[in-house]
């Protein structure tokens, strides 16, 4: 039976872990939103270049992130089992893997992105602008993946405040470079979207340097044996293979998911620069929703991983159920704002009257998309922490490529709905994914609960006294 008092106490525990993760990751995600805002107040064409180039870069980035997604989960499980040396090994091996796949991803993103842009029936100006952005943006991918590995480790050991502190400093660097190069202030060249790519790339390499130095020099982390960095080739191979076994299905899911969203961006590009610019505003709104939900989803994944490591699998449904309720309540507030003040929302991102007018009528659809994305993202993180990658990823891929993309294409081009058709396909597809992942989670959590290894079925839902939660960052 639902107990409001227990739910509030349980929510407090999850939020205590979630808010610094949300602020750190959210601030990081917000740099992309700020890029959109700062570029959007130049010209609609520059915003279109940003949209096309960034969409192609994000495919490689999310695939790399998927390959390294096991770092946070493996570290949280090792930390829950008090095997601190193992947790440190996953960070060191993960960092080597991350830099390697990041470099490969950067080369592939530029090569494949160039082929895609030149194959589609886009205007020469759109192709040239997108390629100029992409050429600079891919240079930061290895650093971005390395940073993702570092933040995954810190979140897995429940030290998210360190992530927050570093990210806040890096955002300041990014904004400063954007100010100088996007509009050409203080005598610097006005590079538009390409200037935003320079700011992001420089900030990412600075971030990686700070994180690796912090982790190796912080004496409070000595128990994890992060320094010296050297470890045997055999040990590196074993940990890398573990991470790849965990991450490959999630990388496939990530890549195909972002590929679906990039396809939506390319569809918008085929409709013209103004439609592409409007779609970029919608994508940035979605990133704001992601920034709000990433902390809660990460905190949920960490707590589920800790519960599995401590053999307290009867608590998993309570953890995820509470997180879903918090997530839907939080996103409902954001969605309501899109209904209430659409002109204000669009005006934040662009000064183009045409783009503002085009976007205002579609914001209600975007509000519903945010709710569906909240559902699917939280459930996907929970299933990942339950080591259920393959089937969960398959459900996600099917929803995007069997429902979302074909429906969006049909409504946009075959039915002549334009950008409205693209948004309608996005909405239906994202809810199909969320519902299917919800059914999958109920089955996986039931199986884990039945094999709880002696855990009492009467284990209370209230987790405030769980000793794992007492390990909060001082």
Which helices and strands appear, and what pairs or packs with what?
Elements (H helix, E strand, L loop, with lengths): L3 H37 L3 H24 L2 H11 L3 H36 L4 H14 L3 H16 L3 H22 L11 H25 L15 H38 L2 H37 L6 H25 L1 H8 L3 H8 L2 H23 L4 H25 L4 H32 L24
Helix pairs in contact: 1-7, 1-8, 1-10, 1-11, 2-4, 2-5, 2-6, 2-9, 2-10, 3-4, 3-6, 3-10, 4-5, 4-6, 4-9, 5-8, 6-8, 7-8, 9-10, 9-15, 10-11, 10-13, 10-14, 11-14, 12-13, 14-16, 15-16
How would you describe this structure to a colleague?
The chain has one domain (4-466). It starts with a helix and ends in a 24-residue tail after the last helix. It is globular. Helix 1 (4-40) runs antiparallel to helix 10 (273-309), helix 9 runs antiparallel to helix 10 and helix 15 packs antiparallel against helix 16. With 474 residues, it is mainly alpha-helical. The protein is built from 16 helices and no strands. Mean pLDDT is 85; it is low at 453-474.
């Amino acid at each position: 039976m639902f107990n409001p008092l227990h739910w509030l106490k349980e929510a407090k525990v999850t939020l205590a872990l979630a808010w610094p993760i949300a602020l750190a990751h959210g601030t990081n995600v917000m740099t992309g939103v700020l890029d959109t805002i700062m570029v959007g107040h130049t010209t609609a064409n520059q915003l279109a270049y940003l949209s096309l180039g960034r969409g192609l870069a994000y495919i490689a980035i999310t695939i790399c992130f998927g390959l390294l997604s096991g770092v946070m989960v493996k570290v949280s499980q090792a930390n829950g089992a008090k095997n601190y040396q193992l947790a440190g090994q996953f960070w060191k091996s993960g960092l080597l893997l991350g830099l390697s796949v990041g470099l490969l991803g950067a080369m592939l993103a530029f090569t494949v992105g160039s082929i895609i842009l030149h194959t589609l029936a886009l205007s020469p100006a759109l192709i040239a602008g997108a390629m100029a952005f992409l050429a600079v943006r891919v240079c930061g991918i290895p650093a971005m993946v390395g940073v993702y590995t570092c933040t995954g480790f810190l979140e897995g050991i429940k030290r998210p405040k360190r992530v927050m502190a570093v990210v806040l400093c890096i955002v300041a660097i990014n904004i400063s470079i954007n100010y100088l190069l996007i509009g050409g202030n203080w005598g610097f060249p006005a590079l538009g979207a390409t200037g935003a790519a320079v700011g992001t790339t420089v900030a990412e390499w600075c971030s990686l340097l700070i994180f690796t130095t912090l982790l190796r020099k912080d004496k409070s982390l000595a128990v994890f044996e992060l320094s010296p960095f050297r470890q045997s080739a055999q040990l590196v191979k074993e940990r890398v293979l573990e991470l790849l076994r965990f991450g490959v299905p999630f990388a496939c899911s990530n890549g195909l998911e972002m590929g679906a969203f990039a396809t939506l961006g390319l569809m918008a590009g085929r409709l013209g620069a103004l439609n592409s610019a409007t779609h970029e505003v919608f994508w940035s709104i979605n990133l704001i929703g992601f920034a709000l939900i990433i902390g809660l989803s990460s905190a949920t994944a960490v707590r589920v991983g800790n519960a599995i490591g401590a053999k307290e699998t009867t608590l998993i449904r309570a953890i995820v159920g509470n997180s879903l309720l918090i997530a839907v309540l939080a996103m409902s507030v954001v969605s309501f704002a899109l209904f209430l003040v659409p002109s204000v929302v669009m005006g934040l991102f662009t000064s183009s009257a045409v783009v503002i007018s085009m976007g205002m009528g579609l914001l209600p659809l975007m509000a519903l998309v945010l709710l569906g994305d909240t559902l699917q993202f939280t459930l996907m993180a929970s299933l990942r922490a339950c080591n259920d990658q393959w089937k969960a990823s398959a459900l996600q891929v099917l929803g995007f490529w069997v429902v979302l993309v074909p429906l969006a294409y049909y409504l946009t081009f075959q039915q002549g709905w334009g950008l409205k058709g693209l948004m309608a396909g996005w909405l239906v597809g994202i809810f199909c994914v969320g519902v299917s992942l919800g059914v999958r989670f109920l089955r996986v959590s039931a199986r884990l609960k039945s094999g709880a290894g002696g855990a009492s079925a009467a284990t209370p839902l209230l987790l405030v006294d769980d000793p794992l939660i007492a390990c909060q960052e001082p």
